[in-house]
Amino acid sequence: MHPGRYHLLLASAGRPVQHGWWASVATARAKFVSWIGEHGSLPDARVTLTDEATGTTLTAWPGEA
Predict the structure, then answer these.
(1) Helix (H, G, I), strand (E, B) or coil at 25
(2) What sign for the dihedral angle of Cα 4, 20, 44, 59?
(3) Alpha carbon separation from 5 to 21, 60, 64 (Å, rounded)
(4) DSSP states of 27-51 as a string?
(5) Rounded Cα gap, residues 42 and 54, in angstroms
(6) pLDDT at 3
(7) Residues β-bridged to residue 61
(8) Sign of CA dihedral 62, 17, 31, 42
(9) CA distances from 43 to 8, 15, 53, 55 (A)
(10) Cα separation, 31 vs 62, whole angstroms
(11) Side-chain half-sphere of 65: how many Cα atoms within 13 Å?
(12) Which helix (H) or strand (E) segment is 19 a member of?
């Protein structure tokens, strides 16, 4: 079973905490926003949404400085 094209990764202090994969970019983007609200207070939290088919990072939080 293929996990889905859009991969969401939550990391804290440089370590993976949670992963998710969705077939729909709209669902993945909604989860991205949700995860920031739910987990954004973790130490050095970072949330990244990647298109696994192209290897492209679609968005990341916090943004690059």
Answers:
(1) helix
(2) positive
(3) 7, 16, 24
(4) HHHHHHHHHHHHHTTSTT-EEEEEE
(5) 29
(6) 81
(7) 47
(8) negative
(9) 18, 10, 30, 26
(10) 15
(11) 0
(12) strand 15-22
56 sits in which H/E element: strand 56-61
The pair phi, psi for residue 51, each rounded to 5°, is -85, 105
Residue 63 has what DSSP assignment? P
Q: Which two tokens stand for residue 2?
A: 């293929």
* Joined tokens for residue 46: 């970072």
Q: Which amino acid is at 29?
A: R
Cβ proximity of 7 and 50 under 8 Å? yes
Report the chain (65 residues): mean pLDDT per 10 consecutive residues.
Answer: 88 96 96 96 96 96 77
Beta bridge partners of 56: 51
The answer to whether residues 49 and 32 touch, using CB atoms and an 8 Å cutoff, is yes
Please, are residues 34 and 58 in contact by the beta-carbon 8 Å criterion? Answer: no
